[in-house]
Specification:
globular, about 210 residues, 2 domains, mainly alpha, three-stranded antiparallel β-sheet, Helix Hairpins, 3 strands, minor pseudopilin epsh fold, 7 helices
Length: about 210
């Protein structure tokens, strides 16, 4: 049985229109996301073969493939849940308070995130993550699916800026796509991820004797 499986979309393919049209969602989910799932499973199978044979001659490329494809799987899984047909507006609760504290308010955060997403060189993601070392939210950008993403951070909100995420509809106008993305953000999902990340002891602090 495959270790990783493609999750179902939590809404219909056309549910995010007009922000993201049906055909993009069909191709993005069924073809691109499935490809990352298949790639991650294939890398795991290859590594198992290497351990069995003792031949690790190609281990660098296989490890690189696993990092790329598994990160693609993780990012897309969060991305689908980060959006909702009734999304948009602004967050509330503890997340809103955190954005006020660390970004000077929602608009400051929104601009930071949008510019990070628009400014990705080539393909990648704009990301709001939870930094478990500083115990606070942080805006980051990833090239491809994993490069330049801070280690040990939990994704809270992600925006896919690979061309396959928007080109059929927006052509080369990534900026318009990112601006419209805010109209479908599922803040309930982002808030839940924030609460869970706060409670997780993902990187325990050193508690040994001094």
């Amino acid at each position: 049985m495959a270790t990783y499986e493609l999750p179902e979309l939590p809404y219909d393919y056309d549910a995010l229109e007009p922000v993201i049209d049906q055909r993009i969602m069909e191709l993005h989910h069924d073809k691109h996301h499935q490809g990352y799932v298949d790639g991650a499973n294939a890398a795991l199978d290859k590594l198992e073969e290497m351990r069995g044979s003792g031949d690790f001659g190609d281990v660098r490329s296989v490890k690189r493939s696993l990092a790329f494809n598994l990160s693609g799987h993780v990012n897309h899984t969060v991305f689908w849940q980060n959006m909702h047909p009734d999304g948009g507006g602004e967050p509330g609760g503890d997340l809103a308070s955190a954005l006020d504290e660390h970004f000077g308010g929602f608009e400051g955060f929104k601009q930071d995130f949008s510019e990070a997403a628009k400014g990705v060189e080539g393909s990648g993601w704009g990301m709001l993550v939870y930094d478990h070392i500083a115990d606070k939210p942080l805006v980051a950008a990833a090239e491809n699916h994993q490069n330049q993403h801070p280690q040990g951070a939990t994704p809270l909100l992600v925006c896919d800026v690979w061309e396959h995420a928007y080109y059929l509809q927006y052509e080369n106008n990534r900026g318009e796509y990112v601006n419209n993305f805010w109209d479908v953000v599922n803040w309930d999902d982002v808030e839940q991820r924030y609460q869970q990340a706060q409670q997780a002891d993902a990187i325990p602090k050193h508690t040994g004797a001094q």
